[in-house]
Write a structure and sequence with these properties.
CATH topology of chain A: Rossmann fold
CATH architecture of the largest domain in chain B: Orthogonal Bundle
Oligomer: heterodimer
CATH topology of the largest domain in chain B: MetI-like fold
Largest sheet of chain A: 6 strands, mixed
Number of domains of chain A: 1
CATH superfamily of chain A: P-loop containing nucleotide triphosphate hydrolases
Number of helices of chain A: 9
CATH class of chain A: Alpha Beta
Radius of gyration of chain A: 19 Å
Distance between the termini of chain A: 41 Å
Strand content of chain A: 15-25%
CATH architecture of chain A: 3-Layer(aba) Sandwich
Number of domains of chain B: 2
Bound molecules: adenosine-5'-triphosphate, magnesium ion
Largest interface: A-B, 25 and 17 residues
Order of helices and strands of chain B: HHEEHHHHHHHHH
Helix content of chain B: over 70%
Distance between the termini of chain B: 38 Å
Radius of gyration of chain B: 27 Å
Strand content of chain B: under 5%
CATH class of the largest domain in chain B: Mainly Alpha
Shape of chain B: globular
Structural class of chain B: mainly alpha
Chain lengths: ~280, ~325
Amino acid sequence: MTQTHLELSGVGIDFPTPKGPFTALNNVNLKVHDGEFVSLIGHSGCGKSTVLNIVAGLHQATRGGVLLNGREVNEPGPERAVVFQNHSLLPWLSAWENVELAVKRVFGKTKSRTEIKEWIAHNLELVHMGHAMHKRPGEISGGMKQRVGIARALAMQPSVLLLDEPFGALDALTRAHLQDSLMEIQAQLGTTVIMITHDVDEAVLLSDRIVMMTNGPSATVGQILEVDLERPRNRLALADNAHYNHLRSEVLTFLYEKQRKIEPFSARTTASAQAKKKTEVA
Amino acid sequence: MTAQTFTHPWRKLKLTLSHRLADFNPTQWLISMLLPATGIVIFLMLWHVGAGQINTSLGTFPGPLDVVEQSQSLWEGHQAERESERAFYQRQEDRNAARMADDPGYTPTIHSYPGKATFIDQTVTSLVTVLAGFLVASVIAIPCGILIGLSRSTYLAVNPIIQIFKPVSPLAWLPLVTMVVSAVYVSDDPMFEKSFITSLFTVTLCSLWPTLINTAVGVANIDRDLLNVSKVLRLPTFTHIRKIVIPSAIPMMFTGLRVSLGIAWMVLIAAEMLAQNPGLGKFVWDEFQNGSSNSLGRIMVAVLAIGLIGYALDRIMLMLQQAVSWDKTSEQR
Ligand SMILES: Nc1ncnc2c1ncn2[C@@H]1O[C@H](COP(=O)(O)OP(=O)(O)OP(=O)(O)O)[C@@H](O)[C@H]1O
Ligand SMILES: [Mg+2]
């Protein structure tokens, strides 16, 4: 458990903009152990998705690099499965077919046809989607879509699972349910997980460590909090746990005192509008 | 009326029926049938009255009744032509059989029927030509559109050419196509008529662009997240195109195809008129040159037929689109 599985060393990235390069991240260092659950938390726009995309290989770091099992990561691959912020299922394929596309890609040469079928069914059952396997994304709820997205990622048997605000768009009840499922699955499979979240409770409940990021530009790791709560964790029992509440307040202190958003509101909205424009153009 | 204590069997049947028809609303249905019918009746009345006011050198402008009369006469003309064609071949066969009986060494020859193409024949010719031209255009435009949409550099390189050729009228292409076809398509036993090939390529050249552009735009605007999914899975190029690119681009592709088919049909009629190639356009032109008292009525029949066929073609494309599209909820009109 103590062996370094994934390492970010001195990672920095500059985005080209009309006003010259924009340094989104600078000198991000992080070591993740095998089977560890790490959360990334920070204010909106600080660069969490960018970190995740660099680990996924979807963005290239300008400085530094990412090592997975000692080998440098420089392109995307199925061993680093991503669950995207908005599920990203192919709308023209059923839940089954969405998972199948990934499974065939990863295991098409090593598993037989029946094994593939069983594996798809197994992963959909794992996220409790067995009853709606043949529905298309347009016919299932947001929570169900997110679960299929998770099943698709798990079915690739990744060595690192990357989750970008997987439960961000869900209601509190569904979210709690999926958090429990995720804890259960991770305990069962021992997958290394990096998860982005905005939700302090979610971070404390699920993580082994919480990585708190400073505000951008030139965002970096501000503080790392070790969450040494016993597993399996129960959200109801933890609500009255003094240590849990202490950890929670540490994260809140970091976010709302040390890294308070100092930009005036108007500046932020124009900045995000610009960022939006940029993505539209690109 | 909240508590339904007693359900009459008849009412029950009606209930299940209306459930079957998925919120079928009789008033809505009546309105949706009545309004178009009213529109057509008013149009026919205005047409009837208006036509009587317009006098031309070939008599008054044809009204609805003339059109009905002329379409009957065109249909009868077609039947008569078919009958005389049948009789023509029958006579030849009889004659050949008789000569064979006299002289067993005789090899019979069959002369083809020299009669002229009827309105129905011309319509069929036009339909076949438009579909062939449209098919050729689609077979070229869809793969090219995908290629252009996939690569920004190809797009930048090809864009000026597309923009220049897109607005060119079929009438400008026609002489060039005619000359090129005459020069290139030389064969003693041609599979197709030269006129067919000329019309086909004129249609292709004009109906290529909407499909090409729409496919390219559809491909270029695929959701970034879906592209990322493809990258994470490291899908091979061909699988990527088949599983991600084409399904994403299908709605835009069909929008383009429908516009293309509409253009193809309009272009074909114009090309047939100008080049005297067989088809509905030639029919219109011949009637115009003919200048009999029936001509205007017959032209009006052709105009309506052109409109109805154009409408039918668009409906067929729409049905195809709905059958192929994964997004059944999107509004398609
Ligand atoms: N392709 C790009 N080009 C230019 N700037 C970018 C690009 N992608 C991200 N940025 C900028 O990098 C910064 C970090 O963006 P990122 O999406 O990583 O934020 P985030 O922490 O994930 O935010 P959120 O929590 O809202 O998802 C932002 O200021 C954004 O404007
Ligand atoms: Mg983000």
